[in-house]
Specification:
By secondary structure, this protein is mainly α. 79% of the residues lie in helices and 0% in strands. Helix 13 runs antiparallel to helix 14. It has two domains: 207 residues, no CATH class; 184 residues, no CATH class. The protein is built from 20 helices and no strands.
Length: 417
Amino acid sequence: MLVSILLTKFGLSIQEIGLYESLLLVAGFISFFWISGIIQTLLPLFQNNKTFTLSSKKSPEIFNAAILLFLFSFLSAIVLYTFKSQIINLISDNTNMQYFNLFILYMIVASPTHLIEYIYLLKNKAKQIVYYGIINFLLQVILVAIPLILNFEFVYVLWAMIIWMSFRLIWLFFLLRKYAQFTISIKFIIEHLQIAFPLILSTLLSGSAQYIDGIIVTSFFDESAFAVFRYGAREFPIVLLMANAFSNAIIPEFSQQEKIETVLDKIKKNTKNFIHILFPLTIIILIISNFAFPIIYNRDFTLSAKVFNIYLLLIISRLVFPQTILIGLKKTKIILLAALIEIILNISLSILLVYFYGIIGVAFATVIAYFFEKLFLIIYLQTKSISLKTYIPLGIYTFYSLVLLLVYIIIDYVIYI
């Protein structure tokens, strides 16, 4: 978000920002699903699989997961390069081929580095995650800010992104040498992929909502409108990060089946804490967003606040964790079915609502589709004798959800019409 602010404050036109966001959209779309699927499958498989025994402090599971990430990264790059002309024509008439080639390089370097935080997680190195996060943040902001401050051409911003990811890649190699056992196991890779494949597909379907939203917006509007949409189509970062971090951290605890009630209770208690903190913060952000967006960015992005306010409502679905329970229990096929339902609903509603509400309608479609995906998984767990009340504090959750919806209606339909 800070980088996006820098882009608006240091002279990039809204068309250039739209191009930058379009390239990020393509790079993310081709990689996000298999990165998430591979890494999330590693969590329950770590020290709990049919291939390796606990014979070494260094982990062969981590090394083989890294191999999969590098393999998928190169395959994705080949796909992008093969169809680059068609993709460029789809996203923009003004995209320089050099820019697109640089983004292919960026994706190759960036994709495997997502494993870094999870190596620390699996090795219970909480402080190192914080230190790494701070250094990574400062490095990215400084490297991207330099060409902007010096008023260099847009291409140098892309090179700054690649240099930033190169530092991350070097750090990944260091961690692999320290924590991974360099043993290639086809058996484990097959075991990993068997569990990961439904999760990869479900992540592709479910997680592609933001990318499909972008494609729909670019189909109906120009690059400027797309930039406005992208700057608003973001969840409250703290909610997204805390929910995902907690979900990933709790998954390995499902490796002991007899402790499932204990794990469910832990999910419920932590969710209650999240609700008391994150819902009030979200309400505060909702109240000030319409005023803050034109100041933080510029007046061209006033409408982005309306989109952002709708995305804030995703907290209602985000703080319910049925998918975490199912991944922990290695029941990934039902997640795939739920994701299929979500994507069909999202596309249908987006195309319908964009005619009536413009880019705002696309945002509404995402929130509605994501809600029904979570509802489907909740009902499935209910049929497996895992009641919602065992992992969600229903009373306080319902209260805060209703308050948030009421505040949203007042802010966007009474005060800022």
